[in-house]
User: Fold this.
Amino acid sequence: MTDESAPSAAEPTRAGFVALIGAPNAGKSTLLNCLVGAKVSIVSHKVQTTRAIMRGIAMHGSSQVVFVDTPGIFAPKRRLDRAMVDTAWSGAADADVVCLLVDAKRGLAEEVTQVIEKLGELRHPKVLILNKIDTVKRESLLALAADLNARVGFEATFMVSALNGSGTQDLLAHLASRVPEGPWLYPEDQLSDLPMRMLAAEITREKVFMRLHDELPYSSTVETDQWKDQKDGSARIEQTIFVERESQKKIVLGKGGETVKAISIAARKELTDILERPVHLFLYVKVRENWADDPERYREMGLNFPRH
Assistant:
């Protein structure tokens, strides 16, 4: 932590929620992890990987900023899609500040326009963040910022690269000054409100997507069945990867179990780094037909079950 971000005795403590919203693949999860300084949300090239609301906690001076990483907002086609989009807008409605994250390279894509139309209905303070600025010429960036500001009353605009961290500290300083005065909501050293069992499942789900993003529909899910802390300090974790059809199970397993083994190795390595202790990870693959229509699965993911 830098000196200027250290709390001063004279400063009142602040704490509040900042929602990150935007179209799929705008870079919300990458930005959240960058601002928090640790991995709390999965990142994937496959769109719509964030499902439930993830909260990452960043400290800046005497302020505690609780970032809410919402699912990407898109035109929903299925029940799971509707649940994710509803969750994103409810996360925005409950926040103190709403940040719209726009992929500067893609600019005013149709999905961004749809988000902007609804964003005008929210009375919250709004901040515009243009991401991936290192991929676009300055003139195009300024034109895009002017266009978006003409459509919505943003109180501030920030240009960042979530991937390399450029501009993110200025953004964090601004948001730290905008959350309400009040006591901190979480312990100072806590990075996320996500239980470790769920974070472990999310990490494995990310590895499934990274390995199989062209072959597997995103309606697969991972659940942590068992977590046992061993006497030697290691963790024994058992997880199940659920898919909707037998043909998908074969894809996840791979020839001779090669694919699921590679997924397990990648997930175990990352979990070992996060937990800072050895991890023994055991993965199973099961078919659960129509799980996307089961209300219980939605509760486990922190989503409301749409009745229609």
The two ends are 48 Å apart (CA to CA).
